[in-house]
Amino acid sequence: MVMAVSVKLVLGSIAFGIFWVLAVFPAVPILPIGRTAGSLLGAMLMVLFRVITPDQAYAAIDLPILGLLFGTMVVSIYLERADMFKYLGQMLSWKSRGAKDLLCRICLVSAISSSLFTNDTTCVVLTEFVLKIARQHNLPPHPFLLALASSANIGSSATPIGNPQNLVIALQSKISFGEFLLGIFPAMLVGVFVNALIILCMYWRLLSDQRDIEDAAQEVVAEEDVNSHHFSPATMSHISLNSLEWSSKTEIVNIDGPAANVNASVGHVETLRNRIRSENELHGTSSEGSKFSVDSNGTKDQTSDLHTQRRDENQNLPSNRTASMDGLGDSFFMQSSEEKENPTTKWKRILWKTCVYLVTIGMLISLLMGLNMSWTAITAALTLVVLDFKDARPSLEKVSYSLLIFFCGMFITIDGFNKTGIPSTIWDLMEHYAKIDHASGVAVLAIVILLLSNVASNVPTVLLLGARVAASAAEISGREEKKAWLILAWVSTVAGNLSLLGSAANLIVCEQARRAQHIGYTLSFWRHLIFGFPSTFIVAAIGLTLIRP
């Protein structure tokens, strides 16, 4: 493409620059309006500066991608309501054989979950599960948080629905779901294994220094806390602070020592009883689709008073009460569950869950059969809405519409920037060195994708380079064109592990861990970079040798 006239080139570059700054640094002090508003501002400036016309702006919006995003979000919301992610959390700690076994489980569960439900969803749902399990076993949180975020990114590369950039690639390249999966799955599988091995090597000694004896009462509390969390899998920004404070303030996680655990054990059970009673009142309908964000200030005060009163009463009880703590907790949970729903309601609930899982499996089978991905996801979503047989507004409100709007603005902004001719000119300069029919060309292309993904984010990178890389590879053969798309998907996804700012999944894990009160942990930029730099280059390089078009 010939460079546009100077005025259009400058104005288009300014509009794209504003979009880039707000996309990478959404809270920049001079204009803290966020990514979504930043993308709309960039799109508006492209039209206002006459880089593109209003009709061209509307045409730049890719509706199939938006439809696929919307459909997968809705399906994820109903899967969350059907306790799918609670079961995933339980798999992490079920019969765990130590810190290293737990870390490997996190890598595997995170990778598989992200390939089916997107990496962002996986990180939103599992971060606090992982943090609680690490605290429960007196383990350092950061190796497990790194395992969660990095494995979610790697695992999401395997399918078109694993992350947004793969959605773009699959729909633009016309590669079917099955071909995409077969082309990248071997690289993903080996990549997850190598990534886990790198974490184990880096933190082997740290993971070996753990306390084996844990208080039984603390395990009951921690497991129930893990099972009781409800997050909206479609979005992080819509999670209510009140909801997070409720789940955090009503728990007691004690890591000071055995003596402290014994002294507090009765308080753990009483706090747990109070919380379950309050949650039954507050969240009695949450499993049936109500919004999980609630105003719990008054109930928290009541719970605190009840806890204080019961703790004073229990100080005079014999110490051997702690020995029967597990039995008390289990009997209370069973009694509470029986009081909450009668057999008819229970079987209706089981039937509804089964339908949700069957519809999801049917969606995946349809995608593997090569049916239209966008309409398959939308059909599955609306099927779940109809099967729920109630007002869908509470569930649909959990959809991250801000993400859909962000994509609309980004499509327009990227299209306008392409019309300035700058991306084409830069690609013409390096195309000769990035031919994928020889190893050096693949290496050059991979490095460009990796660096650009960390500078401009992975989705804009795919939109800027995708068509150009594919056209260059198509001159060699159709097989090489398909390989070019798969390389772009693999490298742009794995590139998210390079730094904390490399992907939204990393930021979600960092923010979720930081905001978890009492058990919160701050994953620093440098601690992530020390692991992310070698892991990204090693995993990306090994995966490139395993991609088969």
What structural keywords apply?
549 residues, 25 helices, mainly alpha
The first-to-last residue Cα distance is 29 Å
Number of helices: 25
Element-level helix/strand string: HHHHHHHHHHHHHHHHHHHHHHHHH
Biggest beta-sheet profile: none
Give the number of DSSP strands: 0
User: Mean pLDDT score, rounded?
Assistant: 78
Helix content: over 70%
Approximate shape: globular
Structure description:
The chain contains 25 helices and no strands. The model is unreliable at 211-224 and 226-339 (pLDDT under 50). It has 549 residues and is an all-alpha fold. The two termini are 29 Å apart. Helix 9 (164-173) packs antiparallel against helix 23 (478-494). Helices cover 74% and strands 0% of the residues.
Please specify the SSE layout and strand pairing.
Blueprint: H1 6-24, H2 34-48, H3 54-60, H4 63-81, H5 84-93, H6 99-117, H7 119-136, H8 141-156, H9 164-173, H10 177-208, H11 216-228, H12 241-249, H13 258-282, H14 297-314, H15 325-340, H16 343-368, H17 373-388, H18 393-396, H19 401-419, H20 422-430, H21 439-456, H22 458-474, H23 478-494, H24 504-515, H25 525-544
Helix pairs in contact: 1-2, 1-19, 2-19, 3-19, 4-9, 4-16, 4-17, 5-6, 5-7, 5-11, 6-7, 6-8, 6-10, 7-8, 7-11, 7-24, 8-10, 8-24, 9-22, 9-23, 10-25, 13-14, 13-15, 16-17, 21-22, 21-23, 22-23, 23-25
